[in-house]
């Protein structure tokens, strides 16, 4: 039911958007896209399409290029499209040595009042036959409104960082000022099966979120990236699932606990008395290019239905599980094309959600899913 207070909230949103439009554009300092030019560099990449990174999310501070090897990587010229009038140091197109790790770039707004740093990586995908995610490596990301939330990453034996994991925390940060990491839907917990784990919980987004037709935010956690720029216009497109792989995943296993919230509600915050919330865990392996070579990235609208899916597995937690319990998913579907696989022509994602209907903004506030020690076998 439409509430009178929502009129004033929507009016405030319109006024806020109007103010944004009136602000000078030269205060922005973002990398919008990045690419490597030159035929002499194509052989270092699996595919020519991987020489470009389009639509870099404004909440991202890293740009990652996937290459065949880092050991023999020559200095590379990386070019950037920036916010209007912004400048970057080192200069766009300058040769930089990425073989020893990331290179830090600083983007400064046209008015000189704002700046931000990015780390640009050239990485090779780990070639092990299985990979264990223990979720021990965590950073804090600080939003412009003072809220801070957890960002998970992986670290190789030699200390190289891999920013493979994402969540919807950056979208929630838009709605809440001064929040601490444990107030967000996805955060690191010290109560994992071994050491740290991941805690996902479904939350009420507040009057502003409800007025926008997004009354709840399920805790979500996935291999891929989150594009905060799409949150207000197309929320399902914000979750961009998958990282490139040259091996076909066969099994995903791990440990979980789950407690559903007490009251299940629909997108209108109406109680559905006969429904109990459920958690959702699934894995998807899919083709990352179409027939003419255009990049394919699955999102919340098609991650389980796309024609580009090769194999997948899903698991629904239908009731409370108070003790750490083992789960195992066997991916079913077709076999990958060996040549396309060797060229990194597939993406793979694992997704965890504290509310199965979270993409439809249905679920129970307070539903909590905890996961730890997740292994992927190839």
Spans of 5+ residues with little confidence (pLDDT < 50)? 1-22
Amount of beta strand: 35-45%
Looking at the structure, what is the overall shape?
Answer: globular
First-residue to last-residue Cα separation: 49 Å
Largest sheet: 8 strands, antiparallel
Radius of gyration: 21 Å
- Helix count, DSSP H or I runs of 4 or more residues: 5
Helix content bin: 10-25%
Question: What is the typical, i.e. mean, pLDDT?
Answer: 89
Count of distinct strands:
30
Structural class comes to mainly beta
Summary keywords:
globular, 30 strands, six-stranded antiparallel β-sheet, 378 residues, eight-stranded antiparallel β-sheet, mainly beta
Explain this structure to me?
- Residues 1-22 have low confidence and may be disordered.
- The termini are far apart.
- It is built from five helices and 30 strands.
- The protein has 378 residues and is mainly beta.
Give the SSE layout:
Elements lengths: L3 H19 L8 E6 L15 E2 L8 E5 L9 E7 L4 E3 L5 E2 L6 E6 L6 E9 L6 E4 L4 E5 L5 E5 L1 E2 L5 E2 L2 E3 L1 H5 L12 E4 L7 E5 L1 E2 L1 H6 L4 E2 L2 E7 L8 H4 E3 L1 E3 L5 E9 L4 E2 L13 E9 L21 E9 L3 E10 L1 E2 L4 H5 L3 E8 L9 E2 L3 E10 L1
Short structural description:
The chain is mainly beta and 378 residues long. The protein has helices at residues 4-22, 169-173, 206-211, 235-238, 338-342, and strands spanning 31-36, 52-53, 62-66, 76-82, 87-89, 95-96, 103-108, 115-123, 130-133, 138-142, 148-152, 154-155, 161-162, 165-167, 186-189, 197-201, 203-204, 216-217, 220-226, 239-241, 243-245, 251-259, 264-265, 279-287, 309-317, 321-330, 332-333, 346-353, 363-364, 368-377.
